[in-house]
């Protein structure tokens, strides 16, 4: 906090004059030339590695004009990919929302041994390579897998179909909602819920009328990040999808297929939709973070 | 009395939510992951060793781990510079650049992959000038390195940022009033307090790069023994129905990933004990 205040005292101006005036007053400031060098390096690095790739997506997508862009998106294969992606995201977000709420309630409202270990287990999918996240389901449900023969006997299709894609996506997005809720509910404690219960409210009433209003921004935050990852997942889905055209290709998989067929406008058109999703997600995330900060109990 | 019996029992729903959590965690995460390890025991130790030390597998593992380490080093240095600029200085567009740091988290990896390839291909905006200098990026190991840097950017910045913001300014002021030079203060006072966060960010960026698939395969060239990463080799072995090979490579990668999580957890505990003293 005091860093912000120290720097806000200096008059607005170019980075150089700001740095110079601060250097004279503030014992914690670097020489002006160092400041300018660090800021330049930081901006150059982020511009080359983050801004340019984002810009190139849209430039390539509109490279042959708006008409080519729109006709690429109107393709039936594109529509089938969009529908599948939305369906998979809806299932993943729904299941992980229920799980995340249950896990956060158990972990933050009660004391029990092994809590840290449980949180580590919930985080596990974040450290597993996406390809391995797909592989584990191939080993379970594939023709040579543990359950493969049984599934075949009963004519059930999991791999190379919607259930497999949904399972792999649920796996990779598993921690998002729980991760968003645990720190928030930990800070909020249990007093409000205990008061509601002692006043005669039922468990569900307490959850919906007391807990949920307190954590609503956190829930939205978890859902937002979970959804972004679910719609954008590539490696895990690629392993279990089977790449059946018009059937099991999600949007990221279609980006790859069109790219490998040198259909650049079509590939980048789909990619541009996903890039817009990422940008909207980031803007919403920034807004939600501010709201969540307001829901965190503060000592002062 | 169950081992899991909560001490605070005025709130309802422990059994239900804990049961749901453990069941769902087991079905979606633990059993599938355990299945991978069970599958790997189909192989004898000698078979496992043969697969993992075959030339192609070994090359893929070396490429994945070596380039991930190099990329994490770049992220460590550049992440420190970026976080310093974002926290300590004011400049036009600072908040925008702060938000942009998260783009590699939010952008689907396939999109990042095709975008980086278009950018660094020989006719691309950055590829063309680099080609003029005789540097080929796309479809070489250098391309893998670039993609791994991209994917690791947020880790060092986001782990160090809160620590740098919370750093007590009085320590620096005291050191300055005792006559220490600015360089001395930064290297001997500030950097040591940031070390746990820096190492955590480094380890997370490294782990992410090792497992990364989507943003790498488009730019990599995917030439066996030269520019083929370990996750891609798993996919190739699966498409050849060589499940045992895929499983063995996956086990090696998972074990390394688990060692990294363990190290990061240790680091965080160490950082907390440092902070509380």
Automatic annotation (TrEMBL), chain A:
Residues annotated as domain ABC transmembrane type-1: 82-289
Subcellular location: Cell membrane
Keywords: Membrane, Sulfate transport, Transmembrane, Transmembrane helix, Transport
Subcellular location, principal: membrane
Gene3D superfamilies: MetI-like (1.10.3720.10)
Membrane topology annotation: Multi-pass membrane protein
Oligomeric and partner information: The complex is composed of two ATP-binding proteins (CysA), two transmembrane proteins (CysT and CysW) and a solute-binding protein (CysP).
NCBIfam families listed in its UniProt record: 3a0106s02 (TIGR00969), permease_CysW (TIGR02140)
Record-given protein name: Sulfate ABC transporter permease subunit CysW
UniProtKB/TrEMBL annotation, chain B:
Subcellular location: Cell membrane
Annotated TM spans: 12-38, 63-87, 99-121, 133-157, 189-210, 216-236, 243-264
Record-annotated ABC transmembrane type-1 domain positions: 61-264
InterPro entries listed in its UniProt record: CysT_permease, MetI-like, MetI-like_sf, Sulph_transpt2
Keyword Transmembrane belongs to the record: yes
Main location: membrane
Gene3D superfamilies: MetI-like
Membrane topology: Multi-pass membrane protein
Keyword terms, alphabetized: Membrane, Sulfate transport, Transmembrane, Transmembrane helix, Transport
The keyword tRNA processing belongs to this UniProt entry's keyword annotation: no
Family label: Belongs to the binding-protein-dependent transport system permease family. CysTW subfamily.
PANTHER family: SULFATE TRANSPORT SYSTEM PERMEASE PROTEIN, SULFATE TRANSPORT SYSTEM PERMEASE PROTEIN CYST
Quaternary structure, from the entry: The complex is composed of two ATP-binding proteins (CysA), two transmembrane proteins (CysT and CysW) and a solute-binding protein (CysP).
Cited function: Part of the ABC transporter complex CysAWTP (TC 3.A.1.6.1) involved in sulfate/thiosulfate import. Probably responsible for the translocation of the substrate across the membrane.
Protein name in UniProt: Sulfate transport system permease protein CysT
Gene of this entry: cysT
């Amino acid at each position: 906090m005091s860093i912000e205040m120290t720097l806000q005292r200096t008059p607005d101006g170019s980075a150089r004059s700001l740095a110079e005036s601060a250097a004279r007053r503030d014992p914690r400031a670097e020489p002006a030339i160092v400041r300018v060098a660090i800021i330049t390096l930081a901006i150059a690095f982020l511009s080359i590695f983050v801004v340019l790739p984002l810009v190139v997506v849209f430039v390539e997508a509109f490279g042959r004009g708006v008409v080519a862009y729109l006709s690429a998106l109107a393709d039936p294969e594109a529509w089938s990919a969009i529908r599948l992606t939305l369906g998979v995201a809806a299932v993943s977000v729904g299941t992980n929302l229920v799980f995340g709420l249950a896990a956060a309630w158990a972990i933050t409202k009660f004391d029990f041994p092994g809590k840290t270990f449980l949180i580590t287990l919930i985080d596990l999918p974040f450290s597993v390579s996406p390809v391995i996240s797909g592989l584990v389901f191939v080993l379970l449900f594939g023709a040579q897998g543990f359950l493969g023969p049984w599934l075949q006997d009963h004519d059930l299709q999991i791999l190379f179909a919607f259930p497999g894609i949904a399972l792999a996506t649920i796996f990779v997005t598993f921690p998002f909602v729980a991760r968003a809720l645990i720190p928030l509910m930990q800070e909020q404690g249990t007093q409000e819920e205990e008061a509601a219960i002692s006043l005669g409210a039922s468990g569900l009433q307490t959850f919906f009328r007391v807990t949920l209003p307190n954590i609503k921004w956190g829930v939205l935050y978890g859902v937002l990040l979970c959804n972004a990852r679910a719609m954008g997942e590539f490696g895990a889905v690629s392993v279990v999808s089977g790449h059946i055209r018009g059937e099991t290709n999600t949007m990221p998989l279609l980006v790859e297929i069109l790219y490998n067929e040198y259909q650049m406008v079509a590939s980048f058109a789909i990619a541009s939709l996903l890039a817009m999703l990422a940008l909207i997600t980031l803007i919403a995330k920034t807004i939600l973070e501010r709201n969540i900060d307001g829901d965190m109990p503060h000592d002062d | 009395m169950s081992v899991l019996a909560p001490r605070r029992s005025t709130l309802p729903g422990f059994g239900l939510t804990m049961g749901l959590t453990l069941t769902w965690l087991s079905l979606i995460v633990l059993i599938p992951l355990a299945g991978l390890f069970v599958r790997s025991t189909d192989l004898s130790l000698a078979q496992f060793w043969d697969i993992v030390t075959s030339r192609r597998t070994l090359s893929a593992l070396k490429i994945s781990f070596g380039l991930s380490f190099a990329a994490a080093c770049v992220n460590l240095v550049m992440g420190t510079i970026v976080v310093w600029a974002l926290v300590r200085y004011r400049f036009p567009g600072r908040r925008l650049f702060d938000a942009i740091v998260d783009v590699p988290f939010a952008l689907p990896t396939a999109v990042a992959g095709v975008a980086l390839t278009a950018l660094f291909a020989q006719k691309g905006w950055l590829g063309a000038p680099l080609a003029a200098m005789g540097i080929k990026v796309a479809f070489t190991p250098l391309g893998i390195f670039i993609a791994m840097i991209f994917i690791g950017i947020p880790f060092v910045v986001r782990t160090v940022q809160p620590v740098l913001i919370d750093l007590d300014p009085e320590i620096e002021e005291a050191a300055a009033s005792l006559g220490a030079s600015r360089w001395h203060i930064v290297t001997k006072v500030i950097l040591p307090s940031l070390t746990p966060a820096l190492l955590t960010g480094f380890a997370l960026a490294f782990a992410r790069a090792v497992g990364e698939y989507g943003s790498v395969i488009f730019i990599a060239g995917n030439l066996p023994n030269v520019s083929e990463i370990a996750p891609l080799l798993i996919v190739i072995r699966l498409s050849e129905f060589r499940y045992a090979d895929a499983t063995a490579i996956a086990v090696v990668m998972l074990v390394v990933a688990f060692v990294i999580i363990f190290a990061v957890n240790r680091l965080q505990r160490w950082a907390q004990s440092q902070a509380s003293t």
